[in-house]
């Protein structure tokens, strides 16, 4: 079922809730892939009804060309969901349904961790993500909402968002879905040709390398090694490689055996920006 007005969506959900169903929300920007499917299946394992929103959110793009080139194909997405999960309620609002006539972000106090990595390189990105999710949570009022760990910093932002807004929704993080060569599933992969898809495996190789080096090498020497790996593949431009403490997501150069750490990468392959991360424990 595809619905594009928030009023009809709310009517449908009200009936479902009155019948005692729990509601799961999987927010997406479309160009659906296996990664979304695993989120949707996870949502079905925990909720009676699942809403998948498809909305390319303008306020989270700090680069007009990135927004313009973001892959969009709602009818293909609807077909994809009909094939894999025909029960899914697909919400495809227009921009004015979400933002009325003021397409602007709200400013949130997510904390220091958004000054690094995605927050550092995509100014205003997380305020845009927070703004759209706050609205989607208000419209859908889900019991649970599901997010992939590929966007790990985003997952932590969303957990903080519901703390700030007090919205009564449980935020569930789901493992990153990867292809057989380790490449994280992403809508942006649709913009890569076959040769680039093969080259993109470097990101997973680099993260795996960082993980294998972590217990017996300094953060500096791991950073050096990862930089070399990217320099050896000039089609790639590494934007950042950061090792952070999982607790606060702040990049660090020191290691404490009592802490857990994660490595994060963002890199451009041609014009396509790819991100990924991995636990180092
Ligand atoms: O991860 C995404 O696809 C987007 O950031 C989200 C969560 C759908 C918000 O627009």
Give a short overview:
This protein is α/β, with parallel strands linked by helices. The chain has eleven helices and nine strands.
- The CATH class designation of the largest domain is Alpha Beta
Whole-number count of domains:
2
CA gyration radius, whole angstroms: 19 Å
CATH topology title of the largest domain: Rossmann fold
Total strand segments: 9
Structural class: alpha/beta
Q: Low-confidence stretches at least 5 residues in length (pLDDT < 50)?
A: none
Largest sheet: 6 strands, parallel
Instruction: List cofactors, ions and other ligands.
Output: pantoate
| Strand order within the widest beta sheet | 1-4-3-2-5-6
Order of helices and strands: EHEHEHHEHHHEHEHHHEEE
**Molecular shape:** globular
Proper CATH architecture of the largest domain? 3-Layer(aba) Sandwich
Strand content: 15-25%
Counting DSSP H or I runs of 4 or more residues, the number of helices is 11
Output mean pLDDT.
97
- Looking at CATH, the homologous superfamily of the largest domain is HUPs
The share of residues in helices is 40-55%
Distance between the termini: 42 Å
Organism: Psychroflexus aurantiacus
Binding site for (R)-pantoate: 60, 154
Pfam family, one: Pantoate_ligase
Catalytic activity: (R)-pantoate + beta-alanine + ATP = (R)-pantothenate + AMP + diphosphate + H(+)
């Amino acid at each position: 079922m595809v619905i594009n007005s928030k009023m009809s969506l709310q009517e449908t959900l009200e009936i479902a809730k009155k019948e005692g169903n729990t509601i799961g929300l999987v927010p997406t920007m479309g160009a659906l892939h296996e990664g979304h499917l695993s989120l949707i299946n996870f949502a079905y394992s925990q909720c009676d009804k699942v809403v998948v929103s498809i909305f390319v959110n303008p306020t989270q793009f700090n680069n007009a060309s990135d927004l313009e080139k973001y892959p969009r194909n709602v009818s293909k997405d609807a077909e994809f969901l009909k094939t894999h999960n025909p029960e899914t309620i697909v919400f495809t609002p227009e921009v004015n349904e979400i933002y009325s006539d003021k397409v602007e972000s709200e400013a949130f106090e997510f904390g220091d961790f958004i000054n690094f990595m995605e927050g550092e390189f995509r100014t205003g990105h997380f305020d845009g993500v927070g703004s759209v999710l706050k609205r989607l949570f208000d419209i859908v009022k889900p019991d649970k909402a599901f997010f992939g760990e590929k966007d790990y910093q985003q997952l932590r932002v969303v957990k903080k968002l519901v703390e700030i807004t007090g919205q009564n929704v449980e935020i569930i993080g789901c493992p990153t879905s990867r292809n057989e060569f380790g490449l994280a599933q992403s809508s942006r992969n649709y913009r890569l040709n076959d040769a680039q898809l093969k080259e993109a495996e470097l990101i997973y190789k680099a993260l795996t390398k960082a993980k294998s080096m972590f217990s017996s090498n300094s953060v500096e020497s791991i950073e050096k090694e990862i930089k070399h790996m990217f320099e050896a593949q000039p089609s790639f431009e590494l934007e950042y490689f950061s090792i952070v403490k999982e607790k606060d997501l702040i990049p660090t150069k020191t290691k404490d055996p009592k802490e857990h750490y994660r490595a994060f990468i963002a890199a451009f392959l041609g014009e396509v920006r790819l991100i990924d991360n991995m636990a180092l424990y």
